Amino acid sequence: MWNELIRLREATESRKISELFDDTSRASAFSLQNDGLLFDYSKTTLDDDIRTALIDLAREADVEGKRAAMFRGDKINTTEDRAVLHVASRALVGDADDIEIDGRNIMAEGRETFERMIQFSNDLRSGAWPENGPKITDVVNIGIGGSDLGPVMAYKALMPYIDGPRVHFVSNVDGADIHDALHGLDPNTTLVIVSSKTFGTQETLMNARTAMRWMEAGSDNAMERFVAISTSRERTEAFGIAPERVFGFGDWIGGRYSVWSPIGLSLMLAVGPENATEFLRGGHSMDCHFVDAPLQENMPVMLALVGLWHQKFCGYATRAVVPYEHRLSRLPAYLQQLEMESNGKSVAMDGTPLAHGGGPVVWGEPGTNGQHAFFQLIHQGTNVVPVEFIVGAMGHEPDLREHHEALLANCLAQSEALLKGRTLEEARNQLIGQGKSGDELEVLARHRVFSGNRPSTTLVYKKLTPYVLGQMIALYEHRVFVEGVILGLNSFDQWGVELGKELADGLVPAIASGKAPENANGSTRMLLEHFLALAAS
Ligand code: F6P
Question: Could you tell me the pTM of the whole model?
Answer without folding.
Answer: 0.96
